[in-house]
Specification:
The complex is a heterodimer of chains A (283) and B (583). With 283 residues, chain A is an all-alpha fold. Chain A has helices at residues 2-32, 39-55, 63-81, 90-112, 136-158, 160-170, 172-177, 182-204, 215-229, 234-254, 257-274; strands at 126-129, 132-135. Chain A contains eleven helices and two strands, in the order ααααββααααααα. In chain A, strands 1-2 form a two-stranded antiparallel sheet. The mean pLDDT of chain A is 87. Helix content of chain B is 54%, strand content 11%. Chain B has a six-stranded mixed β-sheet, with helices on both faces. A four-stranded antiparallel β-sheet of chain B has the order 3-2-5-6, with helices on one face. Chain B has a two-stranded parallel ribbon with strand order 1-8. In chain B, helix 2 (58-75) packs antiparallel against helix 3, helix 3 packs antiparallel against helix 9 (202-228) and helix 10 packs across helix 11 (257-273). The model of chain B has no long low-confidence stretch (mean pLDDT 86). Classes of the chains: A mainly alpha (283), B alpha/beta (583). Chains A and B meet through helix 4, helix 9 and helix 11 of A and helix 3, helix 4, helix 10 and helix 12 of B.
Chain lengths: 283, 583
């Protein structure tokens, strides 16, 4: 019984963490049709924010502004210099963001060193749920992710900016003709997507080993979640993260980590082959 | 640039000079980068020729290396056994790559990020397996003490084995480029959708391209095991995959020499500078990004362009033509096209709404109708471009439902697109050669020279029309032709495969009145010669008048009326929704 509860808690954690990680990628792809291959590197940069805060002797909360400034500045620069020229050019943007990811990774190796870092959770301690104890920090992150996704969904559906974004996704030329500054909106959307990746890194840092190469895993698992769920919607993101996160934690619990990874890959290939629009192709 | 023989002799001479001038240790070092260079050639081929980017090609390098290491350790020194086993490993890699590519590219993911990310995931998993299964791979420490191939000294004569591989692979890849396979690959990169209508299945073409890529990369891996004497998880890892892409990007992908050069130059510089200059790897990544942004063709492309400017090519030697073999049609040709109650939705809008239409087995059926009536969509439904929701479609009793566009030509159906679609980067002459490969080529013809010399009376008759200007400028790039000439080139591309049913979507759009008359003459001549059927979508009533044996009027996804033009003109319903008239 306890094992089952623990497994369910672990699976919930995995799903929430994956949804959080994939959110920025989904945002950038859904709004701009750019597969941001450097997405994982923004997660990595965000995860270094608490490392830097600790290194500079600042309080834990200082990691939030550090993350926003660091990731925001780099994302803005990247949009200006690279991504802006590649909208609507899927293959070129794939390659350019891939080159960018290598640059960011190597840059991080140079700036922070190659070694793994550990980050202390700002909330330590264990919450008891019946007979099972679970880290409080993880439960808090799960709650935050749920609230954040719900809020984002409401905002996208109800707010004026959400409306402008939806107009841009549907028909960029018409949106422009209707007086929407799509260039600015695209830039904001890209930076926002990268900031979400950075915040995901920040929130997940205490549960991971922080290292320059950590972005790859984040990118691939996020991408698979989007493939399975359906690219471009929050509903699809939730579904995809549930399937991929659930499958991976299930297989890893029963067999090995490698089996979990392989299972996820096979599932993603099956989807790319038979159902390239995913489970929730609602766009 | 240059003939295959000339380029490879120069390459061979240059590489043979290395041990003479630099000594055997330099040759050993260069040998390693040449091996990497062959792997980069594999990536460059998939990327430059296939148009898709494999981000995990170290998978095949590693499989080749581990496979060879296992074989070498087990058989020690028997040359024939070693070579055969390495070849078997490389062929297995090619088969794996083919299967994977066909599976992925069939799922409509195009050449976009899906494929790249799956290959990336594969190499990550392979790296993980290599590290965690010591029984098979020696785990983290790898398989060490690999005896060299046939006992050849890795620091001595083995360099010549590497050079032999480099020259063989380079010559092989250049050969593919100059044979029908190369022409088809260039057309694939230019316009997948158009190529599919010529009867080539894009996912299979890409499958072959990826198989070649994997084969070459695995061969390089096999020699790597012999060269290094040790195979560690690094040789199947993500880092090497990335480097292969960087080398192919920076060097270039147009000729197989370019990735080779990129690998040797960057690999060599990295080996020299990695330990002394801390920011070297950041600099390489920055160079990669700059090349992607500013020099999409790679550094060598710049050199090649300068070279071409200095020495304009004067190739295209006259070749003696060969008669093309007949088109291979699956079922016995002929029969009429029948659509029964076809329904099709797109984006929540009903476009075809119970459309029923019969086209005669011979003659010209003109389809007219206001914009948005569903004319082009009807052709998309027939050719399998858009899936239909309900109804039946058949040609001479053969069901068309659920078939893919690349199967159409074998059923005798060819199509000309609404926007004149030709292959960018192919010359007029090359486009016409490709036209004669369509439907006639067997898989075994892909690497033969003869199919490129095929000629066909039907196509020659079309080209001989005084109004067709295509033979005057065979060396001109198809995308640089004016609109009217492009329309005629696409018509030639469509009719060359002797189809029994031709779907022509506004064949005279954007043409001058004189050109329109030529177009009418060509279509009528073709119809009279073959006795086949053409369905022509047209707005120009003068053209309809001079072509149509029958007219169908489409309105809101249905056939409103069908019959002789005079009957259609008299139909009050037609007059109510559609006035017709001149352009």
């Amino acid at each position: 019984m306890d094992t089952l509860v623990l497994f369910l808690l672990n699976a919930t954690w995995q799903i929430a963490a994956l949804a959080l990680t994939a959110l920025g990628l989904a945002l950038v792809f859904g709004l701009l049709r750019i597969m941001n291959m450097a997405h994982g590197e923004f997660v990595m940069l965000g995860a270094y924010a608490p490392v830097l805060a600790a290194q500079w002797g600042l309080p834990a909360l200082a990691a939030v502004p550090i993350c926003l400034v660091l990731v925001g500045a780099i994302a803005w620069l990247v949009e200006r210099l690279v991504v802006r020229h590649l909208y609507a050019r899927m293959f070129d943007s794939l390659l350019a963001t891939w080159a960018l990811s290598i640059l960011l990774r190597k840059g991080a190796e140079l700036a922070f060193g190659r070694q793994f870092r550990n980050v202390a959770a700002p909330l330590d301690g264990v919450t008891r749920l019946g007979t099972v104890g679970y880290p409080t920090y993880r439960l808090a992150v799960v709650a935050l992710v749920l609230a954040g996704l719900l809020g984002l969904w409401l905002w996208y559906r109800r707010s004026a900016t959400g409306l402008r974004l939806r107009a841009m996704v549907d028909n960029p030329a018409l949106a422009q003709a209707a007086g929407i500054d799509t260039a600015r909106l695209s830039a904001v959307a890209f930076v926002a997507g990268c900031l979400m990746a950075g915040l995901a890194g920040l929130l997940l840092a205490p549960t991971l080993s922080v290292a320059p190469g950590m972005g790859l895993d984040a990118l691939i698992r996020s991408f698979f979640a989007l493939i399975v769920g359906g690219l471009g919607t929050l509903e699809g993101l939730g579904l995809g993260a549930s399937v991929i996160g659930g499958l991976q934690s299930g297989l890893s619990a029963v067999f090995t980590q490698t089996a979990g990874y392989l299972g996820v890959l096979v599932l993603a290939i099956l989807f790319l082959w038979r159902r390239p629009d995913g489970l929730y192709p609602g766009r | 640039m240059g003939s295959i023989l000339g380029v490879n002799l120069a390459l061979l001479a240059g590489l043979l000079l290395v041990p003479l001038l630099g000594g055997s240790f330099l040759a050993w070092q260069i040998g390693l980068f040449l091996i990497y260079g062959v792997a980069a050639q594999g990536v460059g081929f998939a990327w430059g020729r296939g148009g898709f980017l494999p981000l995990g090609n170290a998978l095949f390098f590693g499989l080749g290396a581990y496979g060879a290491a296992t074989v070498l350790r087990a058989t020690e020194g028997a040359l024939a056994v070693n070579l055969l086993a390495m070849l078997a490993v490389a062929l297995a890699c090619a088969a794996l790559a083919y299967g994977l590519a066909v599976l992925l590219f069939r799922g409509r993911i195009g050449s976009g990020p899906g494929f790249s990310l799956v290959t990336l995931a594969l190499v990550l998993i392979a790296g993980q397996i290599a590290e965690t299964t010591p029984a098979l791979t020696g785990g983290f420490n790898g398989l060490s003490g690999v005896p060299p191939l046939a006992g050849i000294d890795p620091f001595g004569a083995f360099y010549y084995v590497v050079v032999a591989l480099v020259v063989l692979v380079t010559a092989g890849l250049m050969l593919i480029e100059r044979r029908p396979a190369g022409l088809i690959l260039r057309a694939l990169v230019a316009d997948e959708g158009r190529l599919e209508l010529l009867g080539f299945a894009p996912h299979r073409v890409k499958g072959w391209a990826f198989a070649v890529s994997a084969f070459v990369t695995a061969l390089a891996g096999a020699l790597f095991a012999s060269h290094q004497g040790i195979v560690t998880p690094q040789s199947i890892g993500f880092a090497l995959s990335t480097e292969l892409v960087i080398w192919a990007a920076v060097g270039g992908r147009v000729s197989p020499l370019e990735p080779l050069l990129g690998a040797v130059a960057i690999g060599w510089a990295t080996a020299m500078l990695r330990d002394s200059v801390a920011w070297w790897e950041v600099a390489v990544a920055a160079i990669f990004l700059l090349v992607v942004l500013l020099l999409p063709g790679g550094a060598m492309d710049l050199v090649a362009r300068l070279w071409r400017r200095l020495r304009p090519v004067s190739r295209s030697k006259p070749v003696s033509p060969l008669p093309a073999p007949p088109v291979r049609v699956a079922p016995p040709p002929g029969g009429e096209l029948r659509l029964e109650a076809v329904g099709l939705d797109a984006g929540g809008v009903r476009i075809l709404d119970g459309l029923s239409l019969a086209a005669p087995a011979a003659g010209v059926l003109c389809v007219i109708g206001p914009n948005g009536a569903g004319k082009t969509t009807m052709l998309n439904a027939i050719t399998g471009r858009m899936p239909i929701r309900q109804g039946r479609m058949a040609l001479g009793g053969h069901a068309l439902n659920g078939r893919a566009p690349h199967q159409m030509l074998r059923l005798g159906i060819a199509r000309k697109m609404q926007v004149p679609t030709v292959f960018a980067g192919l010359t007029v002459d090359e486009t016409l050669r490709l036209a004669l490969l369509a439907g006639r080529m067997r898989p075994s013809d892909a690497l033969r020279r003869a199919p490129l010399r095929w000629r066909d009376d039907g196509l020659d008759a079309l080209l001989a029309d005084p109004g067709v200007p295509l033979t005057a400028e065979p060396g001109k790039r198809a995308e640089h032709l004016p609109q009217g000439h492009r329309q005629m080139l696409e018509l030639a591309l469509t009719l060359a495969a002797d189809p029994r049913l031709v779907l022509l979507d506004e064949p005279a759009a954007g043409m001058s009145p004189a050109e329109t008359q030529v177009m009418v003459r060509l279509i009528r001549a073709w119809q009279a010669r073959t006795g086949a059927c053409a369905i022509v979508i047209e707005h120009d009533m003068a053209l309809v008048e001079s072509l149509a044996t029958e007219v169908a009027v489409l309105h809101q996804g249905r056939v409103l009326a069908q019959g002789a033009l005079s009957e259609i003109r008299a139909d009050p319903q037609v007059a109510a929704v559609y006035a017709g008239g001149h352009k």
